[in-house]
Structure formats: structure tokens, C-alpha cells
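Sequence only, no structure available. Ideas?
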Amino acid sequence: MIIRPRTVPPESSRRPRHGKESDDELGEARNGREPGRPERPASFEEIHILWISEGMSCDGDTISITAAEKPSLEDVLLGLIPGLPTVHLHNKLLSPTQGGEDFLAPFRAAAAGQLEPFILVVEGSIPNQNIIEGDGYWTSFGNDPDTGQPLTVNWWIDRLAPKAWAVMAIGTCATYGGIHAMAGNPTGAMGLGDYLGWGFESAGGMPIVNVPGCPVQPENFMDTLTWMLYHAAGTAPRPPLDGMLRPEWIFERTVHDGCDRASDYEQGNFATDFNQPKCHAKLGCWGPVVNCNVPKRGWIGGVGGCPNVGGICIGCTMPGFPDAFMPFMDEPAGGELSSAIIKEYGDFVHRMRRITAMALNLEPEWRHNGPHLTSGYEPPRHPHQPIRSAAP
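Reply:
I predicted one. C-alpha cells follow.
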């Protein structure tokens, strides 16, 4: 492949940071780059994607993206989308290799600084290796060729992330810790931003790009990856991210904004069990406050979306998931008050709308089969036609 020179940031900015940054520094980092720092342009003809799912992971995000259609993973890899660089994907479930050292070869080369450019995709939460006393590890990826001992996922991230042109976290486990990071967990699991530091900057001058979801919605990730690849080709700016490093155009709206049952909420029509086609806010749905586009976009082929098909939103795309949303089937905090207020308002509005609907369900009186036209129509008068006066 063609290797193009790139600017490597100073060692101080590439080292994973675990300390507390100031609010200003954190804000600058989450907005993409330091004020005044120029964006580092790229123009790559080929790029590798090194995908590690050896964190605390079920591989559900990898499985999810195989259902993407717009664009599909196959279209990206086969070069069917104009303007993208040639993409080489290295994912253990989707790799054409037989595994083992053949599969590990590009990862070892990248860790040694012999493979570039590449995008590092991390799936699964990152355990805290520092809390282990003595020998042992939480999760590993391959073995050290010299000692034969397992290499921890932490070892790989420490070496690959600073060298990566871009770093992406896929799924809520990788972005914010997810299920494995809930209260009482023994591993000290965390998201990639917590591990590398929220001020982390890749070799391409970008912060971590977080695409949460449990699992990730297929097109949400493929949309973001495609934008990143256009940026790698030099034909698009970096994708805009929100304060939690999520793609803004995907996560700026709430579940409630795109829910099929949002009108039921407005009118105070709340379900008391899951068999009723009404709003599920009182059954534990957190849709009004959760940033997610799934009800609008669907899951596969535009179909699905938790509340749309009778489920509830449990906030799986949010940094506070799962602890902040448990117990899942209980009415959300504040829901009783808000639903009581909206119930009074909704009942009144619903009654007024029924009165309006009754009027709109009546046909005008001139629609009849009688002998005279009563619609109010008057034929136009010809300009030269004399005006006939009525007889005295």
C-alpha cells in the first residue's frame, strides 16, 4: 500500500491521560481540538481498520453492523461507494484469515509503527488492569511471542491508540462502560474516554469518536465510519461531535422526538400494560430524555425502534446506563409528576380536538343531488355582454 507521511503529535499529547483536566481543557477536547490549532489534512488512498473486541464485550456490535444497508459494510469494503479510500478490515468475526498469527500480523505491525494509516475501532469496555495485585489479567488478545504470555487488551490500546490516525469506540460498553461498568462490578470497567482521557487526541488530530448503543444501531455506525473515511480521503471535514463525543447529527434529538407514540404522551394517553398501543412513559420508558434516533431510523431496513414496537427505552445510548435507569420497569423519576401535569392538559386538549373533529367530519350542505346548484358558484360575465336589469 502507499504510505503517506503524517504529523505525529508530541509524546505528551499522545500519552493516555488518567488525571482530571480543567473544565476549559475538557471542553476544548470534547469540541475536537485546541483553539487555534489547525486541522491536520489527510489524503489517503488506502487505510486499515484494526478492530479490537477483546474488551468486556459480547461482539454484539460487530454482529449488528452486518445488518447495515445505507451504507452496508460490504459496499464500503468492495469499493462501491465513490470517493472512499480502499479499506482493509481486520475484525476477528469478519476476517478472511483462519485466525492465529495471520490475523494478528497487522495488529503487531501497527503496534511496532510499521503499518499506517489505520483507524482503531474498540468494541467492549476496558477493564482496570491496575487494580490487579500480582499476576493475572482481565482479558487478553494474542500472546507475547517472546514469553508466550497473554497480552492484555490494555497493552494493545496503550500502543495502538497513540499511533492511530483515528480512534472510534463502538457500542455503549466501549464508549462509556455500559453493563460491565455498573455499580458493584469487580473489574473496574470503563469506557475508552475514561481510559485514554477525555482530552486524548489521535495521530490524525482527532478526539475519540463515540457511537453508543447496546448494541449500536447499524447505520449509525456505518454513517459515522463513512464520514471518517471521506475525511481520510481529504474530501470532507471531520465529523461534528457533541459534548460526549457522539456524532451530533445522530444524537442531537431524543427518542421521544421520533417515537410513534409521542402524540399519545401529549394527549395524556398512558398505557397501564404493554398490550396497549399508548405511550409507555408510566411503564418505565425514558424516551423523553434519552439521546437516540432509533425510533425514527428503525433497526433493520428502517423497521423497529424500541417504543415503536411496544417496548420501552431504557437509555442504552447514555453515559449513565445502566445504573441511572434502573429498575428498568419502574416509572422514571419525576415521571409521575410530569405525567399528571400532561394528563390534565392532554385531557382538555383531547376534548377540544374531538369537538373540532366532529365539525370536520361533516360535509358542506351544498353537496347534494338536488335540481339546483347551491355551492355559491357564479359563472363569469363576458366583458361585452350587456348588463340586463331586472324587470320593474
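Strands lie at 46-52, 86-90, 118-123, 140-143, 150-152, 166-170, 209-211.
Hope that gets you unstuck.
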